[in-house]
C-alpha cells in the first residue's frame, strides 16, 4: 500500500460572529495516499471548498491537525507554508484563472518563475507538459484563443509543472461540456498513476466520483467514507447529498 501523504484529524471550521456562528466542519478526518484519487461530494454549501482550502493551507482551521508526510502544517509559519504550496501542492479550480496577457507556455511556467527556477529547464518542463495534455501546437496561444477545455488543460499543466506530490482540484470539470470534462478527468487519472500523485477532487459529478479510489461524502460537517461499489455509489451519494440539503447546510 502506498505511503500516507496527507492526514487530517478532527478539523473544525466556523464562520460568523460569536452569537451567530455557523460550524461548517465538525471534526473532519481524512487520509490520502500517493498514487490515489479521492473524491469529495456533498450538497452545495456543505463546506467542500472550505475543506479543500484547509487541506491546501489556503485557509486555517479553528482546530484539529493536518500532517503532510508526517510533518505538521499547522505549526508552520507563513513563509514555510508559501514554499510548501509552491513546491508540494498543485491547485486546479472550476475557473482556470489563467493570466489573459500570458501565453499558454508562460502561464504554465508561472509557478516556477515565482519559485526561482532556471528558465531554460522550466520552459522545457512546461513544453513537455503541454504536449502531454495535447496542446503542443498551442504553446504561444493566449487563453482567449483557447477553448474552455484547452484552458483547463493549461491550468492542469501549470499545477503540475513543479512536480508536486499533492493535487487539489475544486470542480475542475464543472464548467466544461461532458467530452471536455471527461478528457480533463482522464488526464488527472493518468497523471495520478504515472507520477504517483495524490489527487483530492471536489466534484458534483457522481460518475467521476465513482471512478476514483476513495469516495467521501461531506454531511453535517463530517466527512464520511463511502466504501460501496462504484455501481452503487452514485445513488447513495445522491441520497446523502439530498439529506444534507434538507438539513439546510
Q: Main attributes?
A:
alpha/beta; 25% strand; 249 residues; disordered C terminus; Rossmann fold
How would you characterize this protein structure?
By secondary structure, this protein is an alpha/beta fold. The chain has one domain (4-246): P-loop containing nucleotide triphosphate hydrolases (Rossmann fold). It contains eight helices and ten strands. It has helices spanning 48-55, 78-88, 104-114, 119-132, 148-160, 178-194, 206-210, 230-246; strands spanning 4-15, 22-33, 37-41, 63-68, 71-72, 89-92, 166-170, 198-202, 214-219, 222-226. Helix 3 packs across helix 4 and helix 5 runs parallel beside helix 6. The protein is globular and about 55 Å long.
Instruction: Tally the helices.
Output: 8
- Level-1 CATH class name: Alpha Beta
- Cα(first) to Cα(last) distance is 35 Å
Order of strands across the main sheet: 6-7-8-3-9-10
Give the ordered list of helices and strands.
EEEHEEHEHHHEHEHEEH
The CATH topology comes to Rossmann fold
Number of strands: 10
Residue stretches low in confidence (pLDDT < 50, at least 5 long) are 228-249
Tell me the Rg in angstroms. Answer: 18 Å
Task: Estimate the global geometry from the Cα principal axes.
Answer: globular
- What's the number of domains? 1
In CATH, what is the homologous superfamily?
P-loop containing nucleotide triphosphate hydrolases
Largest sheet: 6 strands, mixed
Helix content: 25-40%
Q: What structural class do you assign from the helix and strand content?
A: alpha/beta
Estimate the strand proportion.
Answer: 15-25%
Let me know the average pLDDT: 86
CATH architectural category: 3-Layer(aba) Sandwich
